[in-house]
Amino acid sequence: MAQNPGLGALLAVPAFRKVWLVGALGGVVRWIDTLAFAVYVFEISHSPFLVALVSLVRMLPLAFFGAVVGAMADRIDRQKIVLVGLILLFFVALLLAWLAHSGRLEIWHLLLASLVNGFNWSTDMPARRTLLGAIAGTERTAPAMALDASTNSLTRAIGPATGGLLVAFTGLPGALLLGAGLYAVAILMMLSLPRQDGGRIPPTLGLWRTLTEGLSYAVKDRNVLGIMIVTLIFNIWVFPYTSMIAVIGREDLGLGPFDVGLLMSTEGAGAFIGAIAVAFLGRPSDYGRIYLYGAAIAAICLMLFAISPHPLLSGLMLLLAGIGAGCFSSMQATLMLLVAPPEIRSRLMGVLSVCIGLGPLGFAHLGLMANWLGATQAVTIMGLEGLCAFILAWLFWPEIR
Q1: How far is residue 363's CA from residue 369's CA, in Å, rounded to a whole number?
Q2: CATH number of 7-400
Q3: Rounded CA separation 43/83 (Å)
Q4: Comparing C-alpha atoms, which of 334, 242, 232 is closest to residue 288?
Q5: Which one, of 381, 357, 325, lies nearest residue 69 by Cα?
Q6: Which of 233, 217, 198 is closest to 392 using CA atoms?
Q7: Contacts of 128 by beta carbon, 8 Å cutoff, 6+ apart
C-alpha cells in the first residue's frame, strides 16, 4: 500500500473505497428513515414520546449487543457480518414499503424495523469501521476515521433532505423503496470486495472470556475510559435531541415535511464541515480537546435551537451544533483505535458501541419530558444537563483533555 498518509492515497485503495462507500450508503438510508419515520409517527399519533421511542428502539441493540458483537468480530469474518446485515436490512425495507403502499403499516411495524436496524448498527464499530481501519493501516488510521466520520456527517445532511422530499411528493413508500435500492448497491459492493483479514488476530480465549477481558481493559485504562465517558454524555444528553427536530419543526415552527427535512439537514451539514475541518487541520496533540469541546459546543447550540422562534435562526443553531458534533464524531473511533492494542481493538470498539447504545436512556428521558413539558422545554433542559456533565468530566477527568 502507498505510504502517503493523505486522503487521496486512501481512496485509491479499492478495498478501502468499497468499505467506506458501504458505510456512506447505510448512513444515507439511516437518516432517510429517521426523518420519514418521525414525520409519519407524529402525524398519526401527535405523540412526541412515540417519536422518541422509535429512535430509542433503534439504539437499544447497541447497548445490549455492542460488546458481544465486538467479541464475535475477533472470531467471525468481519466482511460476512457486514454483508449479512445489509441483506437483512434490504428485505426489511422492501417489506415496509409494501406495508406502507398497501395501507397496512402501523407504528409497531416501524418499531420492529428500527430494532432490526439497531442490530445492524451495533456491528458498525466492531466490524465495518474496524475493518476500514485495518485496511488503512496504523499510520493512516486518523485520516481514515476522519473521512468516514465526515462522510457519515454528510449523510446526516443528505438523508433527511432526501427523506423529506420523498415523503412530501411520493409518501413513505417512496422513501422506503429508495432505501432498499441503496442497500442493494451496498450488498453488491461487499460481494465484490476481495477477502480481507481485517487485522484479525485468531482468538485464543473463549467468547465469554474475550468479552470480559475487553470490558476489564476498558475499565482499567483511564484513556479508554475517558473516551467512553465523553461518548456516554454525548449519547445520553446531546444526541437524543435529533428525535425532536421533526416535532419542533412541525409543532413550533409550522414547517412541512420537506422543510423539516431541510432543517434536520443543516445539522448534518454542520457535522460534515466539522469533520472535514478536523481531517485537514486537526493535530494529534489536539485530538482529545477536539473530542470534548466539540461535544460541549453541540450541547450549547441545541439549547439555543430549542428556544429559537424563527426557522432561519433554528437552522443556524443546528448548523453550529452539527459542527461541534462533527468534531466529536470524527475523533470517537480515531482515539479508540489509536490507544487500543491491535489484539483487543474489536472488543473495545464493541464496548464503545455499548456506550453509544445507552443513548435510549436519553431518548426515554427526553420523550417523557416532551410529553409533559413540550419538546422545546425538554430539549432545553437536556442541553443544560449535558453541559453540566461535560463540565464535571473536564474537571475530574484530565485525560480527556
Answers
A1: 10
A2: 1.20.1250.20
A3: 34
A4: 334
A5: 357
A6: 233
A7: 19, 22, 23, 78, 82
Selection from 124, 122, 129 nearest residue 144 by Cα: 129
What DSSP string describes 275-287? HHHHHHH--GGGH
The answer to whether 387 and 296 are in contact (CB under 8 A) is yes
- pLDDT value of residue 350: 67
Q: pTM for the whole thing?
A: 0.69
What is the Cα–Cα distance from 328 to 330, expressed in whole angstroms? 6
Collapsing DSSP to helix, strand or coil, 6 comes out as coil
* Residue 145 and residue 333 in contact, taking contact as beta carbons nearer than 8 Å: yes
User: Hey, what's the cell of 200?
Assistant: 484479525
Using CA atoms, how far apart are residues 270 and 309, in angstroms rounded to an integer? 20
Do the Cβ atoms of 130 and 197 come closer than 8 Å?
Answer: no
In angstroms, the CA 149 to CA 332 distance is: 9
Q: Are 40 and 110 spatial neighbours (Cβ–Cβ below 8 Å)?
A: yes
Parse the chain into domains and list their residue ranges: 7-400
C-alpha 386/C-alpha 266 separation (Å) is 21
The C-alpha atoms of residue 230 and residue 328 are separated, in whole angstroms, by 9
What string of DSSP letters covers 271-314?
HHHHHHHHHHH--GGGHHHHHHHHHHHHHHHHHHHHH--SHHHH
Name the one residue in this structure whose C-alpha cell is 484530565. 398
pLDDT digits (tens, 9 = 90+) for 18-63: 999 999 999 999 989 988 998 899 889 888 888 888 888 887 776 6
In Å, what is the CA distance from 368 to each residue of 111, 197, 338, 377, 392?
A: 17, 45, 38, 12, 25
| 375, amino acid identity | A
pLDDT of residue 332: 79
**Stated length of the chain:** 401
